[in-house]
Each structure stands twice: as C-alpha cells, then as structure tokens.
# Entry
Amino acid sequence: MAFLAPIWLLALLPWVGFAVWTWMGRRRRRWVPFLPLWDAPEEVRRPKRGVEPPPLGLLLALLAMLLGIVAMARPIRRGQDRGGVTIIVDRGASMSGVLNGRARFVELAERAAPELLERLGPGSVELLDVVDGETIKTDRSDWPTRVAGWKRTAIDTSQAVAATVQKHLEQREAVIVLSDRDLAISNDQLVQFKPQAAAHNGGIIALAARPGQVMVTLRAMDAMTRTLSVRSGSRVVEKRVDLKPGADQNVFLDLDAAEDVIEAALDGHDDFDGDDRAWLVRQRNWPIVEVRTALPDELRRMIEVYGKHRSTDASSPRLAVGRTGEIKADEIGVELAPTDAVEAPRGLVGTAAHPVTNGVDWSALSRVAAVAARGPGEGWTKVAWLGDQTIVAVREGDARQVWVGFDSREFARTPGFVVFWTNVFDWLGGNTVGGFGAAQIQRIKDARRLAPAKLSDDVEGAFWPGVFETAGGKVALNAGAVTFKSGGGTTGDLSRLHLTSASPMPLERWLALAALLCLLGSAGVWEKRKRPNRALLDSVR
# Structure
C-alpha cells in the first residue's frame, strides 16, 4: 500500500492522544433526585485511574475518525509492476529556454509529475533523454529529480523526438512525451505534455560573410531593441537594431576579417541565450582523393576515413593515387612504386625534416617492410629512407607529388600509418583556403572547444554553440533558427493508456464509506442520557 497525500497521516497524532484519553478510567456519573438522599460511605481515598474501555458508540466514533484520516491520505493498493511506461524528455534548443530560473523541460517535468503519479500510481518507468539517447530506469515519483539534474542544449531535436516516439510506440509501450514539438502522431498509447508559458526570445538564425562585409539574420518573437556587434580579432563594429516580431531581418555590417574567426553577438538577455552568439570560421579547401589503381585494404580504408573528416566542395583541389606511369607530371598525386613481394627486417628509418614525415612513428616499418627495387629518379627529393634505399620522396612545384616505395602490413596497423598518409594528403592539397562557413550544432567526437572558453554551469558544452578544434581543423557550430511553442497543455488521455502492469486501486472512497457506516453505527448504539424519574421527585417533595 502507498499514500498519495501522506501529509494527512500527521493527523493520527492527536487522534492517538484522544483515543488514549477515552480509555482511561474515571468516576461514573449517577443521576439522583436529591444529593442528601444518596447514602454513600465517605470516600477515604480518591480512586486510581485505570484502563477502562469506552462505550461501543464511542469506539465506533473513534474508528470513523481513524478511517477518515487514512482516507484523506489517499491510500492505493499497488498492482504487480512489470514496467511498460516510457517518459521521453526533450531538452533540445526550444525546451532549453529559461523561465523563472528553470529550463522549460525541468518546469514541465515538475508540472506533469503529480498528474502522472495520481493517474498511473507508483511503479517503475524508463526515462529517456532524446539528445543523447540514454535510458534510465527509475521510479514514477523520482524521475523529475533526475530531469532537474540534466543540462540545457542548443541542438535541434525536431526529427529525433518524432523518431524516438514512433520507435517506442511500435514496441507497444505506453509513451509519455515532454516536448513542445508537433509530433503529428495519433495513438491511444501516446500522451504529450507541452509547456503552457510562452517564451520571449530574439536571436541570430544565420551568419554569412564575404570580403569586406558580414550579413547577420535576426529573428524575434517580440518587439525589442538590441545592439548587434560583429568582431574579428581586434576589429569590432556595432549597430543598434529594432527587432520586429515574426519577421526575419538581414543586417549588413562592413568588416574586413582580421583573423580566421568572426563572432556575432546580441547584447541583453532573453529566455534563450543559445542563439545570442554565432561564429564563422575560415575554411580550408581540403583535397579530393581519386584512386586510379587497386590498393591494399588498409590504404583504401584510410582514404575513406580521410574523406569523411575533410570537408570539400567544387573548388577543392584533386589529387590522384596510382602506380608508376599513371600520374602525369603536371597533376597532383601519389605515385606508388612496385615493391619486393617479401617483407623483411630493414633496419632504422632515416628521415629529413618535411611536413610529410612530421610526427610519424616509423618503428614498425623498421622491423619489417618490402621496398622498391628502383628509386624515384631525377627531380625528386628523398625525405625517408632505409639504408641506401629511398622509401619516400617528394617533388615541389605547381603540382606537388609524393613518391612512395614501400609496403608493410605491420606498419599499416599502427597510428604511424594514419599520420603518414594524412600528412601526404594534406601536403599535396596545399594551403588553399576558401570562404567563411559554419554548421548547425551537432555531436562531434574528439572535438576541443576553443570559444567561448567558459560556459554556464547549466549547459552541456558538447551541444552548445561555439568554435571547436577537430581532426579536420576548426569548425563553427551555431544554434540556427529556434522555434518556441507554448500553450498546448496536455494531448492525449492518461486513463486510456494500456499499462503492462496491474493498475493501482485507490482505497480512499472505500475508507470514506466505511467511516460513514461507523458513524451511523455509533449513533445507533450511543448511550442515551437517562432523565430523572419525575414521579420519584414529586413523592419526595
């Protein structure tokens, strides 16, 4: 048994005191016509008080009081809990606005928790975070405490929420969603809680730059006036902007970028600070690798990974990877020389200072390798060698080239292999740079935050806008356009959810009925006060 309003159980303390008092023995009252006619021995000592059961009517009244107190505590009888309830919490950008000092998803969890506990009763639930996909098994009364410890994000969860809800509905689970997103899903097993309070926000939804000028696109939910500043290094320009509700405004500011990073910021405060700042980073045009021959599996996978971590576009240079004779003299590329079929110990690797050999651990190659029988020829500069045999050479000029004359399966399984080929492709691609760019905030593995260096304690840095250092260079991630919705209340009927556990039975109505029956019984057997005998009184007179 559990109680939904246990505070009322405190009323048992005065009830116990009153019950004990009624059981204490005391003198019994007697009605007499005239006190001198009552011939009783003179009382020498006052009789001691003792335990004496009260009359039946009083006992029934006490029992009625006890039942009423317990009924006010709202007891329920638990069923056999087998789970089946999933609470999905959206802490994306639109739910990470701050109202009255709390995130919208925290406030919504606190509002929904009492209704869920009342309608579903105690039991276990699976609490799911849409942002990182983590599922926590917890209690139906404890889950709001878990949610209160989560941090705010600036990531767009529109598609993630709908996909997560649909997945759990297909598993025939009872799904409860806390989000302001329009799911467009109709299902009796789905109940959605939406924020009621409106959010007030104005922010940066897009940022772009061209030589000498920066364009900032602003959007506001309410009319407001704020100062927009754009910075690049020590150069700063500002402009006072009157924002109109529901209209996107493009603001142009003249600025020659002094560095590779441009930052735009809106002063003041609103309900969501994730879109008050945005960044642009000057992008490098990484090369596109074209394979012209059959390659070992290790090198082929290396080229695939390199392409995934290096952003390219139509202006990116192209480099070819092929065998001797497949690479023209005027094109960028890697020439793979034929090697001996047998790998054998070769001794220490000698290197020259060059970007291609920088940071490469050659120890595995020293133990066993197959090398080319013939060197690269004239016009090449060797940068790595085994004894008197050249294994890596480079050719400078408008079309850079790298000659590779070794194979080693053992070396291909080491980090040195990855570093070497990354150096080769990066050097061949040159130092060409493109324009400024940015992307919408997303999860990035192995990224180090560069700006802003310090964040608020209630936000999650991995999902908050800024500039990051990645394996492919610097990237700028911004919040983008954030749409806040409110006033939806609750969608769906909790009473129609089909739980896999037995529903708890409320006992308060039955206890209240029993209390009324006890009161009726008490009234029926209550001892009537005896009236004096009028005839006896008249005879005495």
The longest strand covers residues 202-210. The two ends are 65 Å apart (CA to CA).
